[in-house]
Amino acid sequence: MKKEPDLEIALSRNRRWIVNNQLKNIILRCPNQVAEVKFLQKKFKTLDLQGKALNWLKKYPCCFEVYLDNDEYYCQLTKRMMFLVEEEESVKDMQEPVFVERLAKLLMMSANQRLSVLKLNELKRNFGFPDDYLIRIIPKYADMFRIVNYSGRRSSMEIELISWNPNLAVSAIESIARKEGSDPCFSCSLPLTWVKSWEKFREFDSTPYISPYLDPRNLIEGSKEMEKRTVGLVHELLSLTLWKKVSIMKLGHFRREFCLPERLNVLLLNHPGIFYVSNRYQIYSVVLREGYNGSELIGKDPLVVVKEKFGELMQEGLHEYNRRHHLLNLEKKRKKGVILEKQEKRKDRATEVSEKDDMGGNLGGVLNPEERKRFYRVLFDDSGP
Questions:
Q1: What are the DSSP E strand ranges found in 54-122?
Q2: How far apart are CA 322 and CA 316, in angstroms?
Q3: Contact between 168 and 101 (Cβ < 8 Å)
Q4: I need a surface site. Which of 36, 64, 318, 385 has the fewest CB within 10 A?
């Protein structure tokens, strides 16, 4: 599938943010919210990072404060960073009813209204769930959820839905259709010039919409109806995420719970008008097309707004680091006399050129071998329009 620059930007934009957010969480869990840089260095492998942790932290001075104490480097969050942490916690408290609805919807789409805690933990940040959602949400809403372990193994803990709420069993597509007074249908975000893709989309969308909240066990695997239900389910899952995107591999871990096909990425690639599939960083990810206008996310969740402030602070620090680094390099070169030498050479060259001009020796670069090669390349190039 052809790469689309805008959506590729959307996929790559918060990669550094993800790493720094994880570092932030590690530091917050340390005693007095101060971490030894040596300790953070050990965590670098799990964050898929290389190089020295100290160098990485110094790149973001607006986020991380690094100091030396008894020949050991330590790191804590800056005051501005702590302010954003408090703001994020405040938003999480306000968004608690939204998290409860999201969790209920996920359980309602699963085959047995149960989901593995281990698997859900892999996607909890995609849905905006706080790290302590098991303690914060489950006991408080005991009339809706409970923790079960039917196998007895510690790794088999599951969250189970106790009560079904029909008001929540309405997908994003059905909700829009009700507002517009029309039948539920998918939207296609492809240019009209993609004629074949549009034909396939119209054919697919001509059959009735199947809600992801309906029991799929009555549908035949591999049938058109099952495909319609799967596309609707992935659409709904992406609608519930903060960034309207998710790793296909992580989504595939829920194959049994959501009755997903074994080759999910192939199915998604067959619906380019609804989903955009990318293998950036050698990881297959799926993006909900209608969730973006170019590379910009539409209808940002309040938690996304706070996280973007974190990203802006991070970029500000990186810009400041690069500026300082550039000035230091200039200073080093000045001390070595490199810049002065270069400036003298430039003056000498300028003098030589002006002397040649005065003598009528400048023939427009035609006698220069490199210029001559470039001239013939342009003259005889067959690759032009």
A1: 64-69, 72-77, 114-116
A2: 10
A3: yes
A4: 385
Write down the pTM of the prediction: 0.79
> Three-class SS string for 157-211?
CEEEECCCCCCCCCCHHHHHHHHHCCCCCCCCCCCCCCHHHHHHHHHHHCCCCCC
- Cα gap 287→275, rounded to integer Å: 6
Between the alpha carbon of residue 63 and those of residues 34, 82, 319, 340, the distances in Å are 13, 9, 12, 37
- Using DSSP bridges, classify how beta strands 285-288 and 275-278 pair: parallel, antiparallel or unpaired: antiparallel
Distance (Å, whole) CA 357 – CA 201:
66
Paired tokens of 220: 């035949």
User: Which among 81, 92, 66, 67 has a CA at the least distance from the CA of 24?
Assistant: 81
Q: Which helix (H) or strand (E) holds 148?
A: strand 145-148
CA distance to 15, 134, 235, per residue, from 171 (Å): 29, 25, 9
Residue 76, phi then psi, degrees to nearest 5? -140, 165
pLDDT in tens, the chain (385 residues): 577 788 887 777 666 777 888 889 899 999 999 999 999 888 887 776 777 888 888 888 889 999 999 889 999 999 999 999 999 999 999 999 999 999 999 999 998 899 999 999 999 989 999 888 999 999 999 999 999 988 777 778 999 999 999 999 999 999 999 999 999 999 888 887 888 888 888 988 899 999 999 988 788 888 888 999 999 999 999 999 999 999 999 998 999 999 899 889 899 999 989 999 988 767 788 999 999 998 889 989 999 999 888 888 888 877 877 777 777 778 777 877 755 555 555 555 544 444 444 444 443 444 455 544 443 343 334 434 3
Tokens of 86: 């408090």
Beta bridge pairs of residue 292:
297
